[in-house]
Specification:
alpha/beta; single chain; Rossmann fold; 4 domains; Glutamine Phosphoribosylpyrophosphate, subunit 1, domain 1; six-stranded mixed sheet
Length: 629
């Protein structure tokens, strides 16, 4: 929807360079830029107009002028909340959801957070109490970065804006780098918060005032799974009703709404439900020239079945190389997920037609959609081995040469879940990091991130524990960050109907036997969608966003990667000769190092953009900058 930044000033600070702030936030809100400055605070806001296009400007003041808000996201139940406030005697000047948030805070204080259904990050300043209250939605759909020091408190929708407010530039953090090399993104959990990438965690809120030495952060939402024992038909019906309700409120907009369509069950279900509200729905798909790496034909077939328009685009390796610095710049953090590529290009395609898109993120985490979630069932026989025999089998398996069939199966089967599963991506292991890192003397185990989460999930079966790990790491740290940044790079708002509080309430009650059964994943979602999807879609296997980086790195991108490695000023972090050796082995077909190479090279590009050239990327934008009185 938008981008914001702001600061609470404990001491005198130089004025914010509003033009540079506007330049860095322009892509998040090209329709309007406004600010408020006084002795205590500075608030800036870049608006992407979705609701109440002519009014609802931000920063917005309450009618009493006591409260001031900046807000990014959508409150999907704002119509109902607004009506209830009107019935209590509250008067509104606008038709959008921002003023509803302000009114709720004025009436209910911080408890208002429990009434919200939507995606959001916001900050509200109380001029009388001189206190800031901020919150982020339960799943982390919208970002909220912050920093604090003796001069004050700084916050923003994007990390790159914080130094412009007076926050100190953050150097690369060693522990963050270690975790990035494991996860392909930088996680943020209860057990670990990286000083270089401090974020308000999903489902958390904070309070900051001059009376507090530092911001007080607390959790208001805790994801819990509690299986019910209802029959499959009843659960499927309840889930379908929850999804219909979610898509209905996600379609609320004063501008055109479209949808991403990959051809799989997640996006197809969203499109089928959205078409009930918008018969002329437009859908968008991208693919690649290489066979097996494109869902365009599947998406077109699905679109024809559902009776919606489909726009498609084929991405080339050369385009990716041309755009990679822009992709990394907009990601803001080093994230080596190749899915950022199709997300970037499908968002660019959609931006030519609509301002809002629906997407299927979250379904895999809520309904056990990843194939890896089947693994505990496949390995359960190892649980019957005596401990000493278990250790002996693992020792024996590790003596076998790499590549021997069954070696990894034996190792994984004899390794406890908390030690073997770190999430959907595990890139470099400990031994490989010792070769990759220039300074490998201090090792930060990935269990710093995952152990606190496993401790919270001990009461559940192994597959549910895996979902819980992904829900708190992979989903907000990778999937939703990529989705937000790549859509905002092209100034469109991405909405995710699966990650709705009411949908999660149903999903959390579904037993694992209704998710992983009949040889498939997301069984209950398939049952819920059976009546609204054509059979060809219903039985289709998940492809995701396949990207042919393995082939590109052997061919079109080989010299490009060589050049990046040679030019990179990351010798203090990375053993570049090791990266080049991986590239040569990969090019010769000796091993598939594509994900490792992509992780290393993405970090090098990120370092060049944000460390080596961080003052040279601003694009001059000319538009009015308005003060809010």
């Amino acid at each position: 929807m938008c981008g914001f930044c702001g600061r609470v000033k404990r001491t005198y600070m130089d004025s914010v360079d509003l033009h540079r702030v506007e330049e860095r936030m322009h892509h998040r809100g090209p329709d309007d830029f406004r600010y408020v400055q006084d002795s205590d605070i500075d608030f800036c806001f870049s608006r992407l107009s979705i609701q109440d296009l002519s009014n609802a400007h931000q920063p917005m003041q309450s009618l009493s002028k006591q409260y001031l808000i900046v807000f990014n996201g959508e409150i999907y139940n704002y119509v109902e909340l607004r009506q209830s406030l009107i019935e209590e005697g509250y008067y509104f000047q606008t038709e959008g959801d921002t003023e509803v948030l302000l009114a709720l805070y004025e009436v209910y204080g911080k408890q208002m957070i429990y009434q919200l259904r939507g995606m959001f990050a916001f900050a509200i300043w109380d001029r009388v109490e001189r206190e800031l209250f901020a919150a982020r939605d339960p799943f982390g759909i919208k970002p909220f970065y912050y920093d604090e020091n003796e001069a004050g408190f700084f916050f923003s929708s994007e990390r790159k804006c914080l130094p412009l407010l007076g926050a100190e530039h953050k150097a690369v953090d060693k522990e963050a780098l270690h975790h990035y090399l494991t996860f392909q993104y930088i996680p943020s959990t209860d057990g670990y918060t990286d000083a270089a990438f401090q974020q308000l965690k999903p489902g958390h809120c904070l309070t900051y005032s001059f009376d507090l030495e530092k911001a007080h952060v607390e959790r208001y939402f805790q994801a819990q799974f509690c299986s019910s024992v209802e029959g499959t038909k009843n659960v499927a019906t309840t889930l379908q009703q929850a999804l219909q309700s979610s898509v209905s409120v996600h379609m609320r907009s004063d501008v055109s709404v479209g949808a991403f369509l990959s051809g799989g069950i997640d996006s197809s279900t969203i499109v089928a439900l959205a078409k009930e509200h918008h018969p002329n729905l437009q859908t968008f798909t991208v693919g690649f020239e290489r066979e097996g790496y494109s869902e365009i034909e599947l998406a077109k077939e699905t679109a024809d079945h559902l009776g919606v328009d489909n726009h498609s685009y084929i991405i080339t390796a050369q385009e990716v190389m041309n755009e990679m610095e822009n992709i990394v710049y907009h990601l803001d953090e080093p994230i080596a997920d190749p899915a950022a590529i199709p997300n970037y290009f499908v968002s660019r395609l959609a931006s030519q037609h609509v301002k809002v898109v629906l997407s299927g993120e979250g379904a895999d985490e809520l309904f056990a959609g990843y194939e890896i979630y089947k693994e505990p069932n496949a390995l359960k026989g190892f649980g019957y081995l005596p401990r000493r025999l278990n250790h002996w089998v693992q020792w024996l398996a590790r003596q076998l040469p790499e590549g021997i069939k069954g070696r990894n199966y034996l190792i994984r089967g004899t390794t406890p879940l908390a030690e073997r599963y770190v999430g959907n991506a595990k890139i470099f292991n400990l031994e490989e990091k010792e070769l990759l890192l220039a300074d490998a003397g201090c090792i930060y185990p990935y269990t710093n991130v995952t152990k606190p989460l496993y401790d919270q999930a001990l009461q559940w079966d192994d597959s549910t524990q895996m979902q819980y790990i992904d829900l708190h790491t992979w989903l907000p740290g990778d999937i939703l960050t990529v989705a937000d940044r790549m859509s905002m790079a092209h100034s469109i708002e991405l909405r995710v109907p699966f990650l709705d509080q009411q949908v999660f309430e149903v999903a959390s009650m579904i037993p694992q036997s209704m998710k992983l059964t009949a040889g498939t994943t997301k069984f209950i979602l398939r049952e819920a969608a059976k009546d609204i999807l054509p059979e060809a879609v219903f039985n289709r296997k998940k492809l995701g966003f396949p990207v042919p980086i393995r082939h590109w790195l052997q061919n079109e991108m080989y010299e490009w990667v060589q050049s990046i490695v040679h030019r990179s000023n990351t010798d203090m972090f990375i053993n570049k000769s090791y990266v080049l050796s991986l590239l040569d082995e990969h090019a010769k077909g000796m091993a598939n190092h594509s994900r490792k190479l992509w992780t290393a090279v993405t970090f090098m590009i990120w370092h060049r953009v944000f460390e080596e050239e961080r003052t040279s990327r601003e694009v001059l934008v000319s538009r009015p900058i308005h003060a809010v009185l």
